Amino acid sequence: MAVRAGKVLPKTFFRREALVVAQDLLGKNLCRRMPDGSIVRAPLTEVEAYIGPEDKACHASKGKTSRTAVMYEPGGVFYVYLCYGVHWLLNIVTDGPGHPAAVLVRGVGQTFGPGRVTKALAVDKSMNALPAVRTSGLWLEDSGVELSEAQIERTPRIGIDYAGEYWAKQPFRLLIKDTA
DNA sequence: GGAGTGATGACA
DNA sequence: GTCATCACTCCA
Hints:
- The protein is built from four helices and ten strands.
- It is of the alpha+beta class.
- The chain has a single domain (7-143, 151-176), classed as Methylpurine-DNA glycosylase (MPG) (3-methyladenine DNA Glycosylase, Chain A, Roll).
- Strand 6 (101-108) and strand 7 form a beta hairpin.
- The two termini are 19 Å apart.
- It binds a DNA duplex (12 and 12 nucleotides) through strand 4, strand 5 and helix 3.
């Protein structure tokens, strides 16, 4: 039984603060047209927000470079980059033009870990800077699921100790509590 | 607990 | 051109 198709999230959905978008994205379906043509839909279960240039953990906090340029685009495009020479990490750019912010996808369905997500969905550099629309082969749909505050857990982000105590402690990692 | 891995950015 | 760094995963 496949997950039902839903309404594709419009660009305006992404053009808000990263933290707000991150919260609203939980439970929404990440959709991928695999290289073999099959369609995979999986609900976002864990995300992290990188809120802008003032956020020391955000790649764009050091200014605009060739890698981070895509984060300066208006929300609604993907930011994909290679981490540790091994793993592709998938981000969704949020907020308005000129304000670099993004939401990192850390888990979908039962798959947790940003590197595992991209491996499971066959996401790599070729998706970088593409818009979140069906024709890109990677997009998001409204699942119709409404999450209550009680179902959302907030914790500090992972693996960003270099960003300093303040930013490392911000509870910008959001995940759906295990409802079994 | 620790190594692998290679693009990226800083510096010369 | 070199060098250090890194939003991770896997294996011991």
